[in-house]
Amino acid sequence: MAPEVLNNQRYGLSPDYWGLGCLIYEMIEGQSPFRGRKEKVKREEVDRRVLETEEVYSQKFSEEAKSICKMVSSW
């Protein structure tokens, strides 16, 4: 869930763009930006990670792909 939604803030299309960034990340990396592959965590922990951690980009990401993910995730 997008940070704006988790924080009960007003929002427009920003959660959709944030979700697109997460989807692109997952398509390239093969796992969610906030959960390890096959890692079992409760939703509250994922929510905490969304709010408190920065996504890590592996060598699979070109500079353009990183830029796109960061751009749409920060709208």
UniProtKB/TrEMBL annotation:
Keyword DNA damage found: no
Top-level lineage group: Eukaryota
PANTHER family from the UniProt entry: G PROTEIN-COUPLED RECEPTOR KINASE 5, G PROTEIN-COUPLED RECEPTOR KINASE/RIBOSOMAL PROTEIN S6 KINASE
GO biological processes: regulation of signal transduction
Record-given protein name: G protein-coupled receptor kinase 5-like
PROSITE patterns the record matches: PROTEIN_KINASE_DOM
Annotated Protein kinase domain residues: 1-75
GO CC term, one of those recorded: cytoplasm
GO molecular function terms noted in the UniProt entry: ATP binding; protein serine/threonine kinase activity
Keywords: ATP-binding, Kinase, Nucleotide-binding, Serine/threonine-protein kinase, Transferase
Pfam (any one): Pkinase
ATP-binding among keywords: yes
